[in-house]
Amino acid sequence: MRFDTIVKGGTVVTAADTFRADIGILDGRIAMLAGDLDDADEMIDATGLLVMPGGIDSHVHLEQPGSPGIVMADTFETGARSAAVGGNTTVLPFCLQQKGQTLREAVKDYTERAQDHCYVDVAFHLIVTDPTPQVLGQELPALIAEGFTSIKIFMTYDDMKLADREILEVLDVARQHKALVMVHAEGYDSIRFLSERLERQGKTAPVYHGASRPVAVEREATHRAISLAEIVETPVMIVHVSNRHAMEEIRRAQMRGLPIYGETCPQYLVLTEADMDREGMEGAKYVCSPPPRDFDSQAACWEGLQQGVFEVFSSDHCPYRYEDAAGKMAPKGQTNFRYVPNGVPGIATRMPILFSEGVVKGRIDLNRFVALTSTNHAKRYGLYPHKGTIAVGADADIVLWDPAREVTIHHKILQDGCDYTPYEGLEITGWPVLTMLRGSVVVRENELKGAFSGNILSRR
Ligand code: DUC
Ligand code: ZN
Ligand code: ZN
Fold first, then answer.
1. Residue 281 lies in a domain
2. Phi-psi region of 100 (alpha: psi -120 to 50; beta: other; left: phi over 0)
3. 218-243: per-residue pLDDT in tens?
4. Model's pTM, two decimal places?
5. Whether the Cβ atoms of residue 188 and residue 201 lie closer than 8 Å to each other
6. Is 460 contained in some domain?
7. By 3-state DSSP, what share of the chain in percent is helix, strand and coil, each rounded to 5?
8. Which of 156, 196, 332, 451 is the 20 to 30 A CA-CA neighbour of 393?
């Protein structure tokens, strides 16, 4: 049999197994796995490399409008490019419904902007901020049927938060139509109360972002979200979990047999609140929500990854430029942490950080790495088995990984649209040396080779 491409001599790693095999690729799909394949138009030498399913990052924000005057640093083009540099072949950004907008308008807008502008495949989640009777009764059921099977909701932020009754209504639509609700679990009233008190005390520097939303704020909202899901009898995914208390809320629910899922992110493994306490406005680079916490919180997030409390490890890439009045240097943000745009970039660094800090340091094994960065995302969000594994019939979305490559993170190698990385100077062992989307090389040795060949995926 003649193939378009053979990936030869590597060690294949899936969420289940690690084995020596060559991979024969035909028409963008994996056509054969065998000990020794020879006949192809193109041979790719994977000797000494790990051959893994391309990363799937199921929590990224690209080209998402925010507060007036604030602009996200990444377009679909630059964000997807950086994703590919970091070994990813599929990303799941959000279509944000702005208040007063129909969901359908939001979907049309994001889809048009992403179409023909992506180096990797894309599947959208929805964000519901305005659950009108029309959204709940007509738009959501129709969009879920069309494949938009995951919906994020917020328990905080002035222009996004849902009241408990609204959360119950969204959960009930999700239950009826078999969608998954992703929850941003931080309590609005507690944050308002604490922020206003900090303001009165003159505590307005970026570091006070942490004090305005302490662990109890996240724990309370996590517990409430789980309880609401239990009442409605539908699953939820608690996203971007930052600490032990929230992790334990999820674990307790799971031990009671509830379908409650968890996600954590790199910023909760390697950053702490002290990063927001840097000179001048430098701390703004690390402002995200929930905020980075302390070393015990980092240890708890590792426990959650090791024990399966967290089934996905995502970047929550939410980039704002630092030296930019439309980003972290927003004029109001320079006088008060409340106005610093929330979010850190991390689409390219997600997999290297988990590999280096997790696999190389012996905290997780290779198969768990693949599960946490690819397979579980595909399974949870309806992309499996054509995404998220190395198997005959699957898309040839493959990353070749050099487990011994030593890299010091510098922003310029990440090729995103931001102007900094919170991980500047971090020393990493293990790096993606080739990213392939449906059989075509997108990035080789950090150099972009691909075109805008990313598809917008339906999850029907
Ligand atoms: N929530 C996210 O998921 N990303 C960035 C900001 C936020 O609050
Ligand atoms: Zn969030
Ligand atoms: Zn996010």
1. yes
2. left
3. 999 999 999 999 999 999 999 999 99
4. 0.98
5. no
6. no
7. 35, 25, 45
8. 451
